[in-house]
């Protein structure tokens, strides 16, 4: 007797399409967007400005980041069969054609909203917004698509992510409400390098698939301990430069807070370098119970260690980043 197989219904398909956009990743651009808005010091408590704020978060979150995730899954089907077989396409919940239409729809929505915002703001500021989103979408495509496929080598993949997820988002959010503040360019640059450092570590999760697919992640090329070391050097330099900037801008309180964040980071980093697989176990419960659904879990021990570190580092950097951005904005109010 044959057993009937239930075909996916409308709700199942909708969930699969949403999962293809990987909502967890949307929040990665929010700190830079918030920082750019705060540093402008020009947002007003009006319905118009609240709608602008919601629009820029929609543009770079669900639409921009969503497109990058969707197109990545489309071109990485074979890798995902190894690394993430439960994703919508390799699991069979979406066909390749359905995934393609997902990418096209989100791309057109992102272009449409980006152009609308740019024209609404007008002038140089509007041009910054339009050029930023179009450039970010282009990079998202060539990051995953042949023949360039920037993700094949860490020397092109990490800067691509840092630029589209951090640098242009910071500038766009600032341009939405004011002229680009000189200090914002510095903060956008620091967020660019912080994103590079974290992307380097995030590649731990796909080492086996990267080896099979010929992708040159840093973890594949130099091993886990050296990868941690390279990333930590970049992160610590970002904190150090932020402290120097806070001093040069006269933000005395921020200097102290940034240096405290740097010191705490170094303490945690030393533990990870001593044991790249299972150190900072005191963060295990926080990650798995408190943030498990938000940042995910991994079968790769080094990646789980990175996830624990990511929670601590992101909290420390986010707080300092937003405090400095707020102080910049207060100068222009």
UniProtKB/TrEMBL annotation:
<feature type="transmembrane region" description="Helical">
    <location>
        <begin position="99"/>
        <end position="121"/>
    </location>
</feature>
<dbReference type="InterPro" id="IPR006372">
    <property type="entry name" value="Chl_synth"/>
</dbReference>
<feature type="transmembrane region" description="Helical">
    <location>
        <begin position="127"/>
        <end position="145"/>
    </location>
</feature>
<feature type="transmembrane region" description="Helical">
    <location>
        <begin position="311"/>
        <end position="330"/>
    </location>
</feature>
<keyword id="KW-0808">Transferase</keyword>
<keyword id="KW-0472">Membrane</keyword>
<protein>
    <submittedName>
        <fullName>Chlorophyll synthase</fullName>
        <ecNumber>2.5.1.62</ecNumber>
    </submittedName>
</protein>
<feature type="transmembrane region" description="Helical">
    <location>
        <begin position="184"/>
        <end position="204"/>
    </location>
</feature>
<feature type="transmembrane region" description="Helical">
    <location>
        <begin position="253"/>
        <end position="273"/>
    </location>
</feature>
<dbReference type="GO" id="GO:0046408">
    <property type="term" value="F:chlorophyll synthetase activity"/>
</dbReference>
<keyword id="KW-0812">Transmembrane</keyword>
<feature type="transmembrane region" description="Helical">
    <location>
        <begin position="157"/>
        <end position="178"/>
    </location>
</feature>
<keyword id="KW-1003">Cell membrane</keyword>
<keyword id="KW-0149">Chlorophyll biosynthesis</keyword>
<keyword id="KW-1133">Transmembrane helix</keyword>
<dbReference type="GO" id="GO:0015995">
    <property type="term" value="P:chlorophyll biosynthetic process"/>
</dbReference>
<feature type="transmembrane region" description="Helical">
    <location>
        <begin position="225"/>
        <end position="247"/>
    </location>
</feature>
<feature type="transmembrane region" description="Helical">
    <location>
        <begin position="20"/>
        <end position="38"/>
    </location>
</feature>
<dbReference type="InterPro" id="IPR000537">
    <property type="entry name" value="UbiA_prenyltransferase"/>
</dbReference>
<feature type="transmembrane region" description="Helical">
    <location>
        <begin position="50"/>
        <end position="67"/>
    </location>
</feature>
<dbReference type="InterPro" id="IPR050475">
    <property type="entry name" value="Prenyltransferase_related"/>
</dbReference>
<dbReference type="Pfam" id="PF01040">
    <property type="entry name" value="UbiA"/>
</dbReference>
<dbReference type="GO" id="GO:0016020">
    <property type="term" value="C:membrane"/>
</dbReference>
<dbReference type="InterPro" id="IPR044878">
    <property type="entry name" value="UbiA_sf"/>
</dbReference>
């Amino acid at each position: 007797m044959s057993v009937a197989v239930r075909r996916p219904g409308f709700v199942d398909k909708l969930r699969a399409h949403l999962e293809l956009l990987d909502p967890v990743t949307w929040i990665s651009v929010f700190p830079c967007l918030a920082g750019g808005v705060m540093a402008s010091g020009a947002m007003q408590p009006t319905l118009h400005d609240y709608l602008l704020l919601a629009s820029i978060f929609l543009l770079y979150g669900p639409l921009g980041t969503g497109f990058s995730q969707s197109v990545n899954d489309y071109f990485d089907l074979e890798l995902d069969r190894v690394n993430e077989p439960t994703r919508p396409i390799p699991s069979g919940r979406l066909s390749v054609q359905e995934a393609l239409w997902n990418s096209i729809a989100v791309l057109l929505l992102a272009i449409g909203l980006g152009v609308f915002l740019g024209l609404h703001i007008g002038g140089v500021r509007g041009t910054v917004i339009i050029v930023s989103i179009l450039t970010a979408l282009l990079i998202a495509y060539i990051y995953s698509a042949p023949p360039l496929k920037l993700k094949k080598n860490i020397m092109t993949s990490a800067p691509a992510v840092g630029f589209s997820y951090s640098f242009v988002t910071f500038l766009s959010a600032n341009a939405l409400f004011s002229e680009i503040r000189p200090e914002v360019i510095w903060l956008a640059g620091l967020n660019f390098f912080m994103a590079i450092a974290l992307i380097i570590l995030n590649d731990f999760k796909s080492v086996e698939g990267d080896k099979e697919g010929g992708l040159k992640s840093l973890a594949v090329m130099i091993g886990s301990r050296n990868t941690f070391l390279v990333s930590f050097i970049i992160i610590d330099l970002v904190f150090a430069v932020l402290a120097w900037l806070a001093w040069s801008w006269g933000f005395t309180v921020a200097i102290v807070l940034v240096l405290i964040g740097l010191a705490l980071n170094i303490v945690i980093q030393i533990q990870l370098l001593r044991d790249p697989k299972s150190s900072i176990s005191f963060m295990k419960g926080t990650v798995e119970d408190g943030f498990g659904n938000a940042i995910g879990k991994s079968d790769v021990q080094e990646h789980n260690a990175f996830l624990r570190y990511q929670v601590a580092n992101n909290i420390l950097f986010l707080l300092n980043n937003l405090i400095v951005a707020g102080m910049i904005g207060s100068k222009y109010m």
